[in-house]
Amino acid sequence: MNEYILLMHDDVLDPAIANDDARWNDYLSQLRASGQFDGGSSIGAGAAFKKHHADPPGLTAINGYIRIRAESIDAARRLLNGNPNYEAGGTVEIRELPHQ
Questions:
Q1: 2-44+61-97 carries CATH number 3.55.40.20
Q2: In 10 A of CB 15, how many CB atoms?
Q3: CA–CA separation, 88 and 15 (whole Å)
Q4: What sign for the dihedral angle of Cα 30, 73, 13, 57?
Q5: Distance CA 7, CA 17 (A)
Q6: Superkingdom, according to UniProt (predicted)?
Q7: The pLDDT of residue 36
């Protein structure tokens, strides 16, 4: 099985859904029950840097991540159903983590 990280971007259309603790508890419980959850956390404020620029243009804040296991990126995408950030109209970026 492959490992993926879901990066939740801070661009939701409905913050009430995205910030609903009960929805997050339900979603994470669902992932745990599937055996595909491998950790995660919210992410606080920070900054991005380039050698000659303090804040790269177009930078979208990421406010959390979830690490999962799935057979494919399509299978990982199916796990977005119920994700409060996704359901609130926000971006969830899926990246495959390389095998080490």
A1: no
A2: 12
A3: 7
A4: positive
A5: 17
A6: Bacteria
A7: 96
